[in-house]
Amino acid sequence: MFDRATKSFSASWLAMLALTMLLGRLAEGSQTLTLAWNPSQAANVAGYDIYYGNDGTNFQYIIDAGTNTSYEISGLQEGQTNTFAVTAYDDLGIDSAPSNLISYIVPGLLTVAPIAGPGSPALISFPVAPGLTYQLQASVDLTTWSIIWQTTAASNAWTQVQDLQAANFNMRFYRVASQ
User: 68-81 pLDDT, tens per residue?
Assistant: First the structure.
């Protein structure tokens, strides 16, 4: 039962990282996730509680989903890992044992860092969700974009890509497109 209660960079790298962080902050938003579960077979189920947070052992949020067996959770922050569990509760409000924990990394955040300092390849990191195809795109002018890497994600995880061509440019910008 649950109780309800960084190194020194050259000016061009610094400008690129500052712009990346600024654009990332401007584009940062919240995401929505739909959870679904099988109904409890217990005869006295009055509803379901969803427990979640970014810790996995100390849930910060509890949502009463009523008798629904799916629920849309909004306001999840990009790049954060959230852990979820569902319990069934009876007419007295007593929760069952929790479901298996599910962790989910919210896609949408992109970070860029030089691997060994200025003039070296760049390491680009971002979270991906299973079943979606992701393109990592690069530009030197924020107008013309080239695809430098592409994959279809098999799991919910952080992906890291090395841009070996980054050292050939004074400035290079990145974005991720998914479908």
Answer: 999 999 999 888 88
Domain count, the chain: 2
- What's the whole-number average pLDDT of the chain? 81
Question: Domain check: are 84 and 120 in the same one?
Answer: no
Q: What global pTM score does this model have?
A: 0.66
- What residues are paired with 145 via a beta bridge? none
Asked which of 81, 105, 129 is the last residue of a domain, the reply is 105
Region of residue 61 (left: phi > 0; alpha: psi -120 to 50; beta: else): beta
Write down the residue that tokens 């922050």 correspond to: 77
Q: Indicate the burial class of 41 (C-beta count within 10 angstroms; 0-12, 13-18, 19 or more).
A: exposed
What confidence tens digit (pLDDT) does each residue in 85-115 have? 999 999 999 999 999 999 888 888 889 887 7
| Cβ partners under 8 Å of residue 1, min gap 6 | 87, 94, 95, 96, 97
Contact 150, 133 (CB under 8 A): yes
Backbone angles phi, psi at 64, to 5 degrees: -85, 110
Q: Which domain holds residue 173?
A: 13-27+109-178
Residues 98 and 40 grouped into a single domain: yes
CA distance 89 to 96: 6
Which phi and psi (to 5°) does residue 24 adopt? -60, -40
**Residue 8 counted as domain residue:** no
